[in-house]
Amino acid sequence: MKKLKYALFTGCTAKQSTPEQMMSTLAVARKLDIELIELTEASCCGASHLQDYDDFLSLVLNARNIAYAEKHGLTMVTICNTCQLNTAMTKHRLDKNAELKAKVNEKLAEVGLEYKGTSNVIHFLYAIIDDFGLDKIKEMVVRPLSQFNIAPFYGCHNIRPSELHDESHKNKENPYNPTSLDDLIIACGGKNVDYEEKNKCCGFHVELQAPHTAAVLTGNAIAGATDNNADMMVTPCPLCHLKLDTQTKHASEAIGRDVSLPVLHMQQMVGLALGCTPAELGLKHHVTEVNFI
Amino acid sequence: MSTNTITTQKVNFKVFRFNADEDYLPYYENYTMDITSEEVVLDVLNRIKWDHDGSFSYRRSCRHGICGACAIKVNGRSTLACKESMTTMIEYFGNDITLEPLSTKRAIKDMIIDKADFWEKHAAVTPYLVADIDECPSCENLVSPHDAEELNEADLCIQCGACHYACPVVEINSDFFGPAAFAAAYRFESDIRDNDTGRLTNVNEEKQGVWDCVKCFECAEVCPKDINPIEKITKLHQMAFKKGVAKNNVATRHAVGFLHSIKKHGLLDEGGLVLYSEGPSIVKHIPVALQMFKKGKIVMPWNMPKSDNLDEIQKLIKSSSTVKF
Q1: Which residue of A41, A52, A265 to mutate against B (max B Cβ within 10 Å)?
Q2: Domains by residue range for chain A, with CATH
Q3: Over 50: is that where the pLDDT of B1 sits?
């Protein structure tokens, strides 16, 4: 197989509150011999909040990010569900609307850039599953996670809106019964846990303005995983990770029950199965300790 | 296509049963049926009533996706029963299908729920045109096609409640208007004939308004009319800024804070955003922040990473900004 190569859009948390996510992404890429060219010029995607304020500006900034991936002639991979949503949504809107694309390009021309629409935007989870292949991962597993019940937490913006997911990625994902992360858990040797909240919202986006709502959603998710005998959770989204990992106290208070589970980034789970060291995967950066290693 | 052949397969149905007048608790009844590829979910409801149990109750009327009466949940997914084909449901969920009312806690009898909260929220957003219209007009009050497009098909809503009872916030925050009410608010707010002055402010209030939306896209996913309520919610946010009714509070500062951060760093300054949004209330975040700091999850202001070619980003913000706050 030809060596896989992507333009990496890290997003903001990988550089700040989830350093372990950046570390584990690079560690897994090394193991799988995937080349990642970091888009160091990229800006924040606006996280759906800049979009509430200034729609046009957020389109211009996201188009600029994609333009840099296009310059490399590479597919862009994201490692955050919300980056994926906002970047893929920008691509969707510009590719469907020539007038809007022209308006955005008029602005990008001021800094010598152009959005062409030539680069796809996919989440790293699907790069691993669809492009690299689950079977190959399975063959490469040196430390199967066979003692563990692992609860997948998909994160909204990778699976909804489903049209956007299906347009961006090779294979469809059923938003009501998603399977990609379950399949990856199984490929890593783990036992996938089925529970009601696996495709539900973690509440991250209203943590400041509606802390109670946010905390209940986080609490429900961890409780759902716990009640189905999960030893840990795994998520492809650093924002979900922040909620599930750092907000257990508020979540427990909100639902009136103590909940806490170790939560791995999808990359950390794959890394563990492939034999990466805890240090390479940044496991010490978790607030809820990863106590099973 | 005339070449389509009708196929049949066995499906196991687990059906929610409850009669608020007689039952202490709800229970589930099981039925196994041969389902053809031509049937919709409503056909199944009819067959349960007609072939199995005449007391089985559900709302139905038009059978054409217009009256909005027959929405229920299929394996937890809000579904307009007369519109959704069983083939799609089997594709989604396999041959074990659970039928429940849109909201089990609001159940009155089987699939029938008390939708009072839905209608209260709907009524609260001034869901009608407010305009000084000549009662004896000499000609029609025309709206140009361009202006009509501004509605973004929000007027197609049939008030089935699918999105409302799929919304996780509705379940937690009883003040929250919910996606259907917001779509209704947008439908009239975007109508050039409308000159109501309170609606936009009303749907931007904390607790009840658009700022409590968690951005999960459940509403967009379930809507049988493809109205995309979250798109309307986003537009209501934007309108509040454009029309100057956005209040200065934690929610609006959270949105505007992204702009300040991107202008300064290209990337988001997470700590800076929380400080900008919360102001002095930031103290409540200190315990979690300390835990995060100990684990190397907080970057100090002097170490904030910056995007390369930041000058480009700043130039684009200057030339492409369309809103002021």
Answers
A1: A52
A2: 5-122 (1.20.1050.140), 134-285 (3.40.50.11810)
A3: no
